UniProtKB/TrEMBL annotation, chains A, B:
Signal peptide: none annotated. It comes from uncultured Thiotrichaceae bacterium. This is Magnesium transporter MgtE. GO terms for molecular function: magnesium ion transmembrane transporter activity; metal ion binding. It is found in: Cell membrane; Membrane. The lineage of its organism: Bacteria, Pseudomonadati, Pseudomonadota, Gammaproteobacteria, Thiotrichales.
Length: 459, 459
């Protein structure tokens, strides 16, 4: 029987890292064999690049496709880059039609071609049907493998038919009733089948009012329908004809809900949906640079507004106008890191086993962004505001704060969690305090200490 | 058969408001009768207070409990305040044990007492068992109504037993196999029952490795387990004895995932989990004041840091130190509104039908918070920093920006959505720009125009 240890994600992670450190690949392999694809994907997402690679190489070939499907888009793409056409074609085999369709869309043309031509005609047509729909609609989400019965048969016939099936689809809670033209008539749940007499006809006991989803319904709306109606599966039909096309199951809907929510959390913090805990430093730095750059632009606009009132502030105007940029850039960088770490904690992907790796990665990202934006802010100060001395001060402060901010973004939520305080709420407040104070102290401290010297150099 | 119109949330909302405006209560009632409790809850959450009240009064009494269960905590509490003990007791009847337990914990003692004493002994004991667990654990989430079979019976006996049942629990995808002491042995899915021969024994075909959840498992971890293993239902057992206590179903897990994600989005923006689109103005204003107050405190700490470098900035120090407070407060207030509106759009709760109500509400909240924080910032400027003139300028700018910010928070995402741009991502950038520019322009513009006058008054 399942033991409690296997249900604890943090415990599983630390077991994995111990095994990797002691070089016991056999123990890792045995552990991976006992996990579902979704759980393996979860472990991979929670691992720094090196461990990630080891785990991925130990995944059995027949499971590779199923694990890839469960991974976030960013990680999946990076793992797939390392695979050749043969390996990819192999990985796609054995996936269900809806998973395969999702997956094929991200593959190179040669792989799509090879995969499709290696399938039997019925499967190929099914995959092509799903590929014809937008992936964010019911048509793109659905599995075309359905179990259908005719309205005039009896319960007994249905039961005998089911008993002959070897391979029923997952999450089968209801059969769909269709006429000879495959037009949807209603559905009959397994519970209804089990609780009615063998001689009753399907059409007398089927549910004609069960929820039907049109092929073009957007996935977000499907999620709301499943949520509000507590569905496990629902038929997908062509809108005009009511022809049955496939079915959608709750497991795919749960993925839609989770992805949509994650994307929303991330984009509010200016993160891209592909941003993940252990994305490569360069990729992370480049993605976050977009948001930092936009913020710098708005800060310069604010500085311009401040500049319009020169007589009011009357002196040291450039410093006063530019110093606000430092804490605000730190706030942005820090809250992006904070968002990833807080979500990682919520999803069981951040624990003491990987905090250090995360820490190092974030320092690198901070350093890269710090260098870039220090240069930019220096250039603008020196050439637009004609204040090279202040530019140097502001640039050094920028670098310091952009390194300090992600460090605070990792350590604050981890520390708060240890103290039993909700890192999502308290983290943002504390982070802003830290980035504001370090930011202002850096820019003004440097100004006090070194501005006269720079002025003596540049005049 | 279900028509497409009923699946479109925005269409449903505008139909509702038209019916309310034309006073056609009968049409509303007919519409509500065709909806599931979750859908009615969704409509109520998307409605401003007045419409909310009308819809709630038209919900049939027998559905009231089920709708209350589906509502967010904040709205539920406000609706329940208007109900007397009899109505509440009535509403609780007919709920499943897990829903009832969730619900009872939020009710006054007299209602709990009356409800429990009006139930038969078996149900009462079940509810009390669930009430004994923390509501955020498997024990608190579970339904105690389970369908169990003994390991030594045959498929045929199980099928005949099921056929005699009138009232099987929802989401029944598997039966639990227990011995005579109610110790969990394994599970058998309906599909297995349907595809095996009648004379096979349960113990030969049951799944002994299916996932088991311990009563103390936190709900967030349950969500991960259901997600990673694609479960529809799972048994809850006592950890030491493996005694079967109840079952958890995917519909409750979906609620956990959604709530957890919503709470995370909200708390990153400093919103309380009870904050909702149409919460009463005073409640919203008070809740958001906490975050604004904290931000002001950190801003004053930053101002103190700036003050340490007085010789560097050398003049107009107080204005330079305090002016940064205005855009940052506007940023906080605006992004809170933005977060609510962006999530409302994502969940189909914000459309052109209710934008105006939302707009008015947010202006009121902004006005209230603006007045409070204008006073505070004036008091601190005048009495701590000894700058009453600058205090007046900063206070007026604060009021203006705290009214402008929520207006931007509503209009930006709605406008972006109309233009087909993701309001979550673009909204945050634009909002910061708006609140920064209005903030700095207000504080410096007012200073330029009126500071000499205030100085002549206060010296």
């Amino acid at each position: 029987m399942e033991t409690s240890v296997n249900n604890n994600y943090e415990h599983r992670l630390s077991y994995l890292y111990q095994a990797i450190e002691s070089g016991s690949l056999f123990r890792i392999q045995r552990m991976l064999n006992g996990l579902k694809p979704g759980e393996i994907a979860h472990l991979i997402e929670a691992s720094p690049p090196q461990q990630r690679k080891i785990v991925w190489e130990l995944v059995e070939q027949e499971n590779e496709g199923a694990v890839l499907v469960e991974l976030g888009d960013g990680i999946r793409a990076s793992l797939m880059e390392e695979m050749d056409v043969e390996e990819l074609t192999e990985a796609v085999q054995g996936l269900s039609v809806d998973d395969m369709a999702d997956f094929l869309q991200t593959l190179p043309q040669t792989v799509i071609h090879q995969t499709l031509s290696s399938m039997d005609r019925q499967d190929r047509e099914r995959v092509q049907e799903v590929l014809g729909f937008d992936e964010d609609t019911a048509g793109g989400l659905m599995d075309t493998q359905t179990v259908t019965v005719k309205p005039d048969v009896t319960v007994d016939v249905v039961l005998r038919y089911l008993r002959r099936q070897k391979d029923l689809p997952s999450h089968l809670d209801r059969l769909f009733v269709v006429n000879n033209d495959n037009i949807y008539q209603g559905s009959i749940s397994l519970v209804t089948l089990l609780t009615h007499q063998p001689d009753e006809a399907v059409q007398d006991i089927m549910d004609e009012n069960s929820t039907v989803i049109h092929a073009a319904t957007p996935s977000q709306q499907i999620a709301l329908i499943f949520e509000d109606r507590d569905l496990v599966s629902a038929p997908v039909v062509e809108e005009e004809t009511q022809r049955l096309l496939g079915r959608i199951t709750i497991d795919d809907v749960v993925d839609v809900i989770r992805e949509e929510a994650e994307q929303s959390v991330k984009s509010m913090a200016g993160l891209n949906e592909d941003d993940e805990l252990f994305a490569p430093v360069l990729t992370s730095a480049r993605r976050r640079a977009v948001w930092l750059g936009t913020n710098l632009l708005t800060a310069f606009m604010a500085a311009w507004v401040i500049g319009q009132f020169e007589t009011t502030i009357n002196s040291a105007i450039a410093l006063a106008a530019l110093m606000g940029v430092i804490p605000s850039m730190g706030g942005i960088a820090g809250s992006q890191t904070l968002t990833l770490v807080v979500r990682g904690i919520a999803l069981g992907q951040v624990g003491k086993t990987n905090t250090r790796s995360l820490f190092l990665k974030e320092i690198m990202v901070g350093l890269l962004n710090g260098l870039v934006w220090a240069l930019v802010v220096f250039a603008v100060s020196a050439f637009v505001f004609k204040e090279p001395s202040i530019g140097i001060v502001v640039a050094i402060a920028m670098l310091l704060n952009l390194i300090a901010a992600p460090i605070a973004g990792v350590t604050l939520p981890v520390a708060l969690k240890k103290m039993g305080i909700d890192p999502a709420l308290a983290g943002s407040v504390l982070l802003t305090t830290v980035t504001d104070i370090i930011g202002y102290a850096a820019v003004l401290g440097l100004a006090a200490l070194s501005l006269p010297y720079w002025k003596s150099l540049f005049g």
